[in-house]
Amino acid sequence: MTAGRLRELHVPGSPLVLPNVWDADSARLVEEAGFPVVATSSVAVARTLGYRDGEQAPAAEMLAAATRIARAVSVPVTVDAEAGYGLAPSELAERLLATGAVGCNLEDTDHARGQPRDAAEQADRLAAVREAAGEDLVLNARVDVFLGAGEDADEQAVLPDALDRARRYLAAGADCVYPIHVRAPDVLRAFTEGVRPAAVNATYLPGGPDLTGLAGLGVARISLGGGLWKATRTWLHGTLTALADGKLPY
C-alpha cells in the first residue's frame, strides 16, 4: 500500500482512527476489524521488547518489530519512530522505508536533554527526512510542548509555541502535525484553526472529547497511543491475579 493512500485518509472533520499496535498479532486484529491503517505505539513496542519508552530500546529492535508488523498486514503501516533514534535523516528514511512502512511519527523531544529540540533544528531535520524519502513516507510531526502542561491555562500559555512549531514543520514538508496530549477542547480547536487546512493528529484520552467530539474540533487523525496496550495489560494483570488466587478466569 502506498503513502498516497495514507495521505488521502487524513480528512479534517472526518478523521482516520488509529488503534495503535505493538506486534504482528495485534496488527492483524486491527486489520481484521476493518481499520484501513495500522499504526505502531513506541511505548507498547518498547515494553513488549523489554525496554522503556523514550528511545531506550535499540533502533534495530524497534525497526525489526515494525518490519514484522508491516509484513503481517496488507494495509498501510505508519511507525512511531520516536525522535529518530539519533540516526541521520537519510539513514532514518532509508531504514523506515525498508520496514515496509509508508508513514512515521517524528517527535521534537531531544531525549538526551529531556526537553523539546529547537524548533528550527527540528524543522531542518524534517526537511532532510522529506528530501531523503521523497513522497514515499507520510511524515507526522509531533509537537511535544503540551506534554506535562497540566491545566487549561498552561495549555493556553504554550499554544503560541506549539503553533509556531507546527507551521515550521509543515513548511519543512510534514504532512500532518501532532500536538500530543492536548486535553482542552478550546486549545485543540485553536490549534487546528491555526494551521488550517493542514491535517492535525489528536490523541484520544479518557475523560477528554470522544471520537465524535474530536472530529468536531477539526482533527484529521486520532491516535490511541499506548491505550489499547495498557488496557490489554490491565486485563491480563487482573486475570493472572485471579488465577493466582485459585480462580479460573475463563
UniProtKB/TrEMBL annotation:
Pfam families named among the record's database cross-references: PEP_mutase (PF13714)
Annotated signal peptide: none
Gene Ontology terms for molecular function: lyase activity
Superkingdom to which the source organism belongs: Bacteria
Keywords per UniProt: Lyase
Protein name: Isocitrate lyase/phosphoenolpyruvate mutase family protein
Species of origin: Prauserella endophytica
